[in-house]
Amino acid sequence: MNPQFKKGVLELIVLESVHQRDMYGYELVEEVSQVIDVNEGTIYPLLKRLTNEHYFETYLRESSEGPPRKYYHLTAAGILYRDKLAAEWEEFQARVNRFLMGRGGHE
Amino acid sequence: MNKDKFLTELRGYLSILERQEQDDILEEYAQHIDMKMQKGLSEEEAIGDFGSIEQLAAEILEAYHVNPEFRRQSFSFKLPKLMTGGSRGSMQTQSGQSHGSAQYKDGNVQEEGNRGWQFGRRIKNIVMKVVCGIRNAFRWMGGKCRAFGVWLMKPFKGRKTKPGEDAQANGRLTERTKEMGGRLGRFCRAVGRGIAALWRWCIRFCIFWLKFMWNAAWLLFALLCGGMAMFILMGAGAVLVFLAQGYPFIGLFLICLGGLLCLGALAYGAFTMLIRKEKTDGNDSGTQSGKDAEKKEDARSWENEIKEEDIKNWKSEMTEGYGKEAAYE
Fold first, then answer.
1. Residue from A47, A49, A61, A71 whose CB has the most chain B CBs within 10 Å, to mutate
2. For B232-255, how does the pLDDT look when each residue is reduced to its tens digit (9 = 90+)?
3. Which residue of B has its CA nearest to A48?
4. What is the Cα–Cα distance from B87 to A42, expressed in whole angstroms?
5. pLDDT at residue A97 tops 80
6. What ipTM, to 2 d.p.?
7. Which residue range forms the structural domain that includes residue A24?
8. Based on the structure, what is the number of domains in chain A?
9. What is the mean pLDDT of the segment spanning B155-163?
10. Closest residue in A to B63 (Cα–Cα)
11. CA spacing 20 to 30 A to A7: which of A22, B87, B193, B229?
12. Min CA distance, B170 vs chain A (Å)?
């Protein structure tokens, strides 16, 4: 898949994943990897950025194995942002689809 | 590459961030690697999945709106700055972080900590800002050269790639193109930096002379005042003798005492106006140049020490951190 495609939707996928339930970094990486094949390193900077922009809140929670984990939680601003991105994505892909379909129909 | 080395290297790239942020980020990566290893991957593989550290660091810095190029360009200036005092250092870091104008920091670079003389410092800052502007212009040219290089390599990329070729090869080729463009850009930037360094050196030389003249003038004034004070002291002694013999010279004596105090204060004031390098530094401006050279040597050895110490600190702290994690398990 084109890496440029991935970069754009990665943010949406991350937001959506955390929207469903709070997650810690590694869990999130695994979840995202199921949807798109992505370099694991790039997800943490994204989380950092979204946290810096107040779309995420973080808190620590003890885990049975290993050190306490940092969980990410979507804030109200984050939910709004997620909805906005999702709507944009819907419209974008609908348009592209329509274009591709239209072309296919003419030929 | 093992985990320690990976984290140390990554921290090196993130040194512009606050210590707490660095720890925060590294903690996350350390945990990720640990979890990968728990799942049966080797340390090498787990770290290999992150790709290039430099690129990773660039992405992290992007999250803070920091220019990733900053560190490489100005690393040599950061350490001397550490020595010139905390308040200014922290102020610069803040401004650098808040609007990402990392180059601005170089504007305040001062090779020695000269305390007390605000006005001079301000002038110096202005001069440094001008120099910085010139250097930035060169940097900008370097960047353009790089872009030109990339553009130049574009046709080759197009010719070599057949439409049927897989995406991976395509990616590799793009990388190669970038690298070649990058080399040209780096060369141009190196030239730019060289010229800028020469400029800086000239300015530093001028500043040194200005300082020298300033010191010489004040020293002369101080010595003059001191000499006069001595003369008046002698006069006061003579008047005292007359006074003891019954002459009505009490007023003259008081004037002498006043003059003595006044001139003494002036001489002292003039001495404090001298720009000094260190507390132990003498007021003799004649030996200033020698002292300057020594000071620079000092600064250089300091830099090395700091680097080594920092690396040691990181290492020890990180190993401590892992010790704790191990205890959790």
1. A49
2. 999 999 998 998 888 888 888 899
3. B63
4. 35
5. yes
6. 0.82
7. 3-106
8. 1
9. 52
10. A49
11. A22
12. 11
